[in-house]
Structure formats: structure tokens, C-alpha cells
Amino acid sequence: MRVPVDWLREYVAVPEDATGEAIAASLVAVGLEEEGLHTGGVTGPLVVGRVLTREPEPQKNGRTINWCTVDVGDANGTGEPQGIVCGAHNFEPGDLVVVILPGGVLTTPQGPLEVSARRTYGHVSAGMICSERELGIGDDHDGILVLTRRFAGDDELLASLVPGTDALPLLGLDRETVEVNVTPDRGYCFSVRGVAREYSHATGAAFTDPALALAATAPEPTDGGFEVVLADESPIRERPGCDRYVARVVRGLDVSAPTPRWMATRLTEAGMRPISLPVDVTNYVMLGLGQPLHAFDLATLEAPIVVRRARSGERITTLDDADRALDTGDLLITDRGGERPVAIAGVMGGAETEVGSATRDVLIEAAHFEPVSVARSARRHKLPSEASRRFERGVDPALAAAAAQLAVELLVEHGGGVADPDVTDVGSPAAPEPVTMPLSFPSRVVGVHYGPNEVTSILEAIGAGVTREGDTVVVTPPTWRPDLTTAEDLVEEVARIHGYERIPSIVPSPPGGAGLTHAQRVRRTVATTLAGQGLSEIWSAPFVGADRYEALGLDPDAEVARSVRLANPLSDEAPLMRTRLLATMVDALRRNVARGTRDVGIFELGLVVDLEGEQRSAPTEDVGVLPSPEVLAAIRAAVPRQPRHVAFLLAGDRDRAGWWGEGRAADVSDVLEVVRVLGEALAVEVVTVASGEAPFHPGRCAAVSLADGTLVGHVGELHPKVVAALGLPARTVGGELDLDVLTAAAEATVQARTLVAFPMAQSDVALVVDEAVPAARVEAALRSGAGETLESVALFDVYRGDQVGEGRKSLAYRLTFRAPDRTLTTDEVSTLRDAAARAAGDAVGAVQRT
Fold it and tell me: Which CATH superfamily is domain 42-170 in?
């Protein structure tokens, strides 16, 4: 919400010397979030100029520029016309424009731009004729700002604009605007009225509620107003979708009348583009008071207006000219006794009743709509609007008559209309529910002493009605605070108005016995271990398309069948939840390589979706309603299994080259080493055997399993076709493991081994086996036959050649033995080695090489 400081001063006594920075700091003190401070972003000479000549000059690049002479009066110090090159074409000689002279500075997204006299297109251009975007007051960048057209109809103003006039105050560029971020529970701050109230709380400055004076002047409802019927038959949360509807009629309106300059300036400063008087008035009232309004062309309406839910099959063409299919949950404004939809309530009006150039009579709607209903319609139709943003956070139901009165007054004053004496005001909003709270409750919750009188005075200051009953208070929240429903909500108000900065920062002592769960410790260990291996942790968005599975060499149909399809995806190209981490991690790898990082090692811990059977929709309940056990069970049953995985990718050099020697590219041995290190860190025995799982190369892939055969995942080198399809570096390696399986395996108690002081004994053995026999099977056989004194087995050489024959290979292992109670003799070690070799012969047909 952008709040012009000059506008804020109308509602609250802001000191004359208060800067935008000081105002923002005061608002932050009571819980609002500062988004930024806005000024015109222009310093130096910015003046009104009159175009004297405009000479088009075609260029070799096909562009046509204009060589202009512009009268800027005495602002340039000489009184001579200024020569300026301009690329826009939407002005003519005689037009009044805005010129920034050499020495001036514009604020651009790229930083400050100092304007100077420079040679361009064969001329010395001494300044710049500015567009709205360059001045920061609009979005128009295709043409320059023509004051003659901007202030058309304001003859008095145009007569006062002579060349050389300072344009900063003319365009409001000398004023400040404070921008705050409005949290969902503070919807009343989507207005200058609400922000002014908060500034009053923060500083004690006198606040004048504009709604009070307007409500006092608003006429009472009559029976002769435009007929409105509230007929919502499907209320949300036991409340109707519309509980108040005020309608006022203004006749004889001149819709072509110019919007007052002060109003257009305020709308611009608040971030809205002036459009036409009726639209600008409704926007101005909404920004000022917080009540969204809608103006209908009265000639296109047929009484009565009926507020009801949409019927199956109904459609409406909204103001953006989109034909929309309505949902039975949409709340509608209809006419002709409910036959024709003319607006989606609280979201957007219909094209058929839009105010146009031929409109003479308008009906002003000021209504109160249920937040959930508006929010659902806005999201269902992807129609976020300024009105829906306010309604879905809660609008003051007592504000409708005052807002309609202000809109009528402005239209009558500036549009020459006449207000009908009859007023429609139907519906009866529910009064805020009182909340009972012990006076000591804020002190107990916050840990700061708040006296009883202090608590009641703070609650009264925010507009609540307070009745003391002994040691408790009964608090009736103000109508503009629908978020105050519990005693805890009132505690928050006491704390923020008293001052968050006055709450001491005390670090709580954790209770004994608490800490990380086993799964959390495993995840932390895995992340720390992988980081220690030189890999960087990433997060990738878990959304993919079917084409990604195809690029990975997977069966797209099978993967899609296991995937959950999103009802409202962020991108139509990625409508599925991922079934494996590698499907999204490859994007991060490709992006890093594209930005110049040649050697990359990344890992991710995250959830994947493993859908079994058909995708089911979970039942929903209204917000604030505890689902029944049956509904909770149905919700849980509809949620697919979501195992947690860990995946990693390596590309480029694993060992970098330098003065110490040549580098070494990452290969399959590196991901196998990652698996080994993870197993050691978790004290889990893992076994790797050759495999051919996609997306890995069938000859350079390994399946990772637990000792009992439970599959953990796969690692290896990505298939060349996968690398080519995804644009990854050649010979990229990686892997993906089921972290839930590792977590369960790591729960077993690890028995510490006593350190043995006796020396170790080593013996080497070379075994010849068939080429197809994995080294892991040979090692397992050696371990089984070597006995309990075997401490370790290490493969240190692989030989293929004439000495072992075609289709055979020699694997050389170093066996390390150590007895816990004695020094082993050479004969004992030889016997143990021979037993291990025999076990390998029996298991895999290994023959000891001599």
C-alpha cells in the first residue's frame, strides 16, 4: 500500500517536519512492514518546455529521430531555445512538455542517470524530453509526457504553464510516498484511513476518522431506492456472502469531465493510473477509506439487483473482455430479478454494465462481502484485483454508507451530476463477538508487566469497547478488526501498541531431554558429510513436465502414472510433482555450467512423490472448522507416499589441475566413494553391484543396497543420450538414494569395537574371475571365508590381458588381519588367506593367480 504523505496528513496530525523515513519508522514500530520510500526520483532542473520545431530525421538503422528546439524560458540561463534529440513521435510543435536540463538526475532501475549535453545522431542534445516512466509517475514509455493533453480541460492551469516553470511540484515529484506491506490480518491498513490510525497509535498524533463526518452527512435509507435483494443460499462459514449492500444513484453525470488534478496526482502517487472521473472517484474512495466501490451504468441495469450464488452453466464477460464460466461457489451481482450476472461480487464487474462515454446515470455499489467467498472466486478465475485484495482480508462493514456518500459528493462536485434522494441500504452485518480476557493475561503471555489500566487504555485506543468485570475485561472489537477473535489476538495488540522494542530479548532455556529426532540427525549428518566431500547443497522446485522424464530415458507413461498432477501449476510446462530429485537437479547443474562454473558438485535433500493407484482429491473443510476423524482419515488417505531422497551430481574435474599436476575428471568411482562415505558416516553397511538403471549408462551404473538386500538407490554415469538431451557436460555422474531407507537402517545400535594394541598382519591375494563377476561379490566371499580376525579388505589392482585369458580379469586384494589377544604368526595369516581364497572359489569360481 502506497500512502502519499500529503494525503496522510489529512487524516492524522503528522508534524510538518516529519520525513517519509521517520513516518515509515513509526509505522514499523507498530508492526507494519516498510516496503520503500518513493519520491519523484528526479533532482536538478526539471521544467516545462514548449516545442517550437520538430524535424524528423531517418537514420541508417531504420529508426527515425526528431531534432527539436524547445523553449525552456530562462531555465537554461540564456533564454535561447534548447536543442534536443527525441525518439518519440507523439507530440507536435506548440505542445507543452517536460524537459530535464543538463545537470539533472533521473532515477532508473539501473541506478542514477545524470543528464548532460552530449553529441548523438549528429547533434548536440542538451537535455531530455521526458516520458511518464522516465519520471517515475506512470508506465508509458512509448511516448513522451504531453502536458497539453494531460491537463486538457484545466484551462486555468494550462494558462499558468509558461516555459521554464518548475515541473517538480506540478507533477507531484517534490512529495514523498511511504509504501508499507500489509499482512493478511491487517486488511484495514489497505487504506490511508487505516495507516493514519496506526501512525496515531505509534506517535500519539491526533487522528481524525473521515468516515465519521461522512456517515453523519449520509442520508438515511429510504424505501424508494434501487431495489436490491440479498439471496445467498450457500453461506460460507454460516455467514452469507453479502450481509450489507448500499446503492446510491447519481444522474446527469458528465463522464467526460476531467478528474481533478489533485485527485489524479494522489492516485498516481498511490500507484494507480488515472482513467476517467467515475473510475478515479471509486479508486480514490477505496484508497482513502478502504471500501471498494463499483459503478454501474444505470441505463443498462434492470431492477431488482439480486446478490446470489452462480448457477451451473452460467457465464459472464468481465471488464477485461474475458468470457468466464462461473462456478456454483461464485457470489454474483445480478439484475433482472436475478436472471443476468453483471459482476463477480468483490472481484470484477461485467462488460455489459460498464460505465462508458455515453453513460449519464450511474449506480454506486458499496457492499460488504464475505472474505472467503471473494478469495476463492479471485483465485478460481485468476483475477486478483485491488477490490478482492481488500475484501479477502476483511473490509469494515460499517463503512459502506460513508464510502458511498463520499463517492456521490465527488461525482456531484466534479461531474455535474445530481444525487437521487432515495438510498438503498439492505442487510444487517453481524456485530463483532465480544472476547473475555483476564487483565493479567497479556503479562503472562508476553513476560512484560502491563497494568490493568494500561491494558484497558490500549484496547480502547484501537477502537474496541471495553467493559471491566473484576479482574477480567469483556472486549468488543471494532468493526474494522475482524481478526480480533481470541484473547491471544488482544494480547498481540497490547504488546505492539505498548511497543515491541520494550519487550526484553531473553533467550529461553531449552527443556531437558529435547533435541533433534533421529531422522533430523540423519539428515544433518548426510548434509554435513556431503558438504565435507566438496559438494554444495541446493534446492530445486519440485515441478516437472512429462518431457523431462523422456529426456532422462525413463518411461514417460509410467512416471506420469506415479506423479501427482497439480490443479493450479505455476507453469503449464511443469504440471507434475517430481518422482525423483535428479529430474529437477539437472536444471541447477545446467544453470551453473551456463554461468561459467565448469567444475560442479551439488546435492539436494528433498521429498519426492510416489503415487500408487489413481490420484484422489482430499476433502476440504471451511477455515476455522476442526475436521472430523473420518475427514482427517480421508485427507491422509488421499495424500500419496512422499519418501525423502538425497541426490548428487558431479561434472567437470573432481581433482583440479594446477602447478601440482594434471587434474582428474569426475567419474563413477567418485560417486561410489560418496556412497561409501555416507555409509560410514551413518554406520550402515551398503553394498554396490553393477546395474543398468535409467538414466545411467548401462555399463557404468551401480545399484546400492543394504546388507540384507534392501534397495537404497542407484549411482553412476548419466547416459550419453540423457546428457545430450538435457545439455549437460559430458560424462556427468551422479546418484539418488532413498534417505528414508538409510534412516531406518541407521536406527540400529552401533557396537563400538575395543581398540586392539597387537600389531596387524597383511597378506595379498590375486584372484582370476570371469569378467562379468562384480568385485563386490569377490570381496564378500573373501570376508566370509577369512574369519573374525579379518580387519579390512582393499582392492588395489585390476589386470586384464594375455596372462589371464580373454573374458577374464585378475583382482588383487590386500587382506589385513589382527587378533585381539595375540600377535598372529605368518603361518596363521597364510592359513586365513588361503581360507578366504577357497571361499571365493566356491562362491564365484575364483582361481588364485600364481
Answer: Nucleic acid-binding proteins (2.40.50.140)
